[in-house]
Amino acid sequence: MGVILFSSFGVLLISFLGSSNYVWSVLVFFSCFIFLFCLVIFGNDLGVICSIFYNIGLDFTSVPLVVLSCWLLPLTLLASLGHLSYYNFISQRLYCFLLSFVLFSLFLTFSSLELSLFYISFEATLIPILIIISRWGSQYDRYQASIYFIFYTLLGSLPFLVSLLSINVFLGSLFFPFFDYFFVFEFSFNDFSSVWWFFTFIIFVVKMPVYGFHLWLPKAHVEATIAGSMLLAAVLLKLGGYGLIRLLSFFSLVNFFSLNIFLVSFCVWGSFITGVICFCQSDLKSLIAYSSVGHMSLVAGGIFLGFCSSLNGSMVLMISHGLVSSGLFCLANLLYERSNTRTLGLVRGYKCIISFLAFWWLISCAANLGLPPFPNFLGELIIITNLGFLDFSFVFLAGGAVVTSAIYSLLIYQLTQSNKIINNFSNINEINLREYSLIFFHLFPLFLLILNPLLLFINF
């Protein structure tokens, strides 16, 4: 793991000190090297993962998110080549540094064993995204999006800081392994345990974000560059789910059953309402952003259930959604770079111009709606099944959320690929090899996730 941190730190240095002629190629090479090194270390050797957990803090919850982060960094660099061609090299160098800094902070977040280091690295990931939105955003509204981003971040982070200080006073330490022995016994009979519970989890609810705390996300997605949207959808939203899973066990013996019922109901209802809101969106990027809110609300509902199987379903849905949502933003960016608009009424008929692009849209939309055998279907099925164990009425509500997700995913494909093309868009550039590779490397891991359970079943 030290090699991974050293390599990611090397990526930071290359982005500032590297030669102007080779900085892009070297950054992509080092990013791919980090990803391949993660695959070698975290393969299928359970003993290696267990030993890494006791020394650094990685386990079966954080390892998939680390690999996802390493996989996406070279893809964000590839996606940014077209956008940054209009800026000078100093701006490009700063942009690469910020993306590399996000990767370095994610490593610290997913591998920290102390809650204070987790909090610092967690908040550090927000600074580069804020700079990317405010500096490289395409419209003047990027400043309003930055204000929303800061406001909601402070709304969640300050109560969490108060919670950290309170836990440190009672336990004398913020070291994760100590919590299993002392945390529950200290807080289970305390009158203020529910307050600490709320302060601890509100930062992650805002970060995911769950419906009701989501207003910053569509604005941030619409104003961010393609790399910012990819990182927000694929990794940074997953920090909220990771924090919920990591800290939920510390309150497992505290009796919050009625509060959990309320939160599960709120998350599942928010997932359904978000699907309905997607029907009212005219901006393609905003529609994809609201679909992320709906999926992450369902993930939060599975996490608040607290069952082992529901947590596994939430992890599957988080990883698959990270790949699918990032791929959808890349596809939307391809259309925006050729038509200079994201309005669904204007972006249409691309099947007649770039026929093979319709195939990528079909696969991405099918994966987003949870069509079997894509991993989204497996994650949603596990979560809905566990919701039925709690209350069978949740099955109908979550099923309605899945149905609305299927409808707006099919609408995205139908509106962008079908209908008569507008004459102004008839002379557009073909998709080049870099853009085809970008979409392929988003969808290729999904097929690996499909084949892995099948191979295990055959071997069994």
Short description:
This protein has 3 domains: 1-111; 114-255, no CATH class; 256-460, no CATH class. The protein contains 20 helices and no strands. It has helices at 2-17, 23-41, 46-55, 63-79, 81-84, 89-111, 115-124, 126-136, 142-171, 176-187, 193-207, 216-223, 226-248, 257-278, 284-305, 308-339, 355-368, 375-390, 393-417, 433-459.
Describe the protein.
- With 460 residues, this protein is mostly helical.
- The protein has 3 domains: 1-111; 114-255, no CATH class; 256-460, no CATH class.
- The protein is built from 20 helices and no strands.
- Helix 17 packs antiparallel against helix 19 (393-417).
- The protein is globular and about 65 Å long.
Record keyword descriptors for this entry:
single chain, 460 residues, mainly alpha, 20 helices, disordered C terminus, EC 7.1.1.2, NADH-ubiquinone oxidoreductase chain 4, NADH dehydrogenase (ubiquinone) activity
